[in-house]
């Protein structure tokens, strides 16, 4: 699997990185890949969506989203930035699952993978360290990356620009569904332990972290923004650091950590469609909503915005 991390990093670190380079790599394994270029006054980016077909079209479909502002911040910074982690992992997952399928190891259900490629994204102020900006806003990302056919979503995002989670590696978030922050999935913790050989690591979330960007409140980052655009359960996979690292910082794509995160997503893709892994307890969720009602308003900008 490490060769897929290296391949993804090599593709995305190029100054001319774009969706066509990604599509060429994925089509090596026969994966149908869609590239959509979106341009704004801030620049342009290529959204890339691909599907790794499973054996049973009726099995649950896993969505994998590589969330980021951009893979690089040229000309201000040279080379890939910390924020590129989400795209690197998403592409490595697609390459690995595509190779598995080509060799005859076919997953039970489809895996739909989406990210975007922008080698010259802007930066934006944020506390405690600067964020990567993006030529497109979060609602546009959700429109092109979140798919209604995704029965559950894994959102991978660099989450190093904070003082909340201070250790190297990757952490998973509690499951977020329709405005509810639910308990961390035990079966996903099992996968994390199995795939890393270490105790599980989880990322603390607040209610405001799962609300849409644009409401003028602080968010740890955009890792749970896909949850504002779907009723499916969403779990964040956060690549982390000991000290705060800006999203626009170069030399901060820790490849061994990205390997661990990729392994976790691949194992989730194996287990979820076979019913071996679940993102939430449906009975508990129904109990919560019957007691306290819908929290769907947290998926909106709210009143007066």
Plain-language structure description:
This protein is α/β, with parallel strands linked by helices and 305 residues long. The protein has one domain: Aminopeptidase (3-Layer(aba) Sandwich), CATH 3.40.630.10. Helix content is 28%, strand content 18%. It has seven helices and eleven strands. It has helices spanning 2-12, 19-27, 85-103, 138-145, 186-196, 255-271, 282-292; strands at 33-40, 43-52, 62-66, 111-117, 123-124, 131-132, 152-158, 169-172, 176-177, 180-181, 234-240. The strands form three sheets. A seven-stranded mixed β-sheet has the order 1-2-4-3-7-11-8, sandwiched between helices. A two-stranded antiparallel sheet has the order 5-6. Strands 9-10 form a two-stranded antiparallel ribbon. A hairpin with a 6-residue loop joins strand 5 and strand 6. Helix 1 (2-12) packs across helix 3. The chain is globular. The model has no long low-confidence stretch (mean pLDDT 95).
């Amino acid at each position: 699997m490490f060769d897929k991390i290296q391949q993804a990093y090599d593709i995305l670190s190029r100054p001319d990185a774009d969706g066509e380079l990604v599509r060429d790599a994925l089509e090596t394994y026969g994966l149908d890949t869609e590239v959509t270029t979106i341009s704004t006054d801030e620049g342009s980016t290529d959204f890339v969506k691909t599907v790794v077909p499973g054996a049973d079209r009726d099995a649950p479909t896993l969505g994998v989203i590589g969330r980021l502002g951009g893979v690089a911040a040229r000309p201000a910074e040279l080379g890939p930035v910390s924020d590129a982690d989400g795209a690197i992992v998403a592409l490595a997952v697609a390459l690995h699952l595509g190779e598995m399928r080509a060799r005859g190891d076919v997953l039970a259900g489809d895996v739909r993978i989406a990210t975007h490629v922008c080698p010259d994204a802007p930066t934006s102020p944020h506390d405690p360290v600067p964020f990567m900006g993006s030529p497109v806003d979060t609602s546009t990302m959700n429109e092109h990356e979140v798919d209604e056919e995704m029965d559950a979503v894994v959102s991978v995002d660099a989450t190093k620009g904070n003082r909340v989670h201070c250790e190297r590696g990757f952490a998973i978030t509690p499951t977020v569904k329709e405005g509810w922050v639910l308990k961390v999935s035990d079966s996903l913790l099992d996968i994390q332990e199995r795939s890393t050989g270490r105790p599980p690591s989880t990322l603390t979330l607040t209610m405001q972290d799962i609300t849409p960007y644009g409401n003028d409140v602080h968010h740890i980052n955009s890792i749970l923004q896909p949850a504002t655009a779907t009723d499916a359960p969403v779990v964040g996979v956060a690549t982390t650091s000991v000290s705060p690292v800006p999203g626009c910082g170069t030399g901060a794509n820790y490849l061994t950590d990205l390997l661990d995160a990729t392994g976790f997503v691949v194992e989730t893709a194996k287990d979820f469609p076979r019913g071996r892994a679940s993102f939430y307890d449906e009975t508990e969720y129904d109990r919560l909503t019957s007691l306290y009602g819908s929290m769907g308003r947290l998926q909106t900008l709210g009143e007066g915005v």
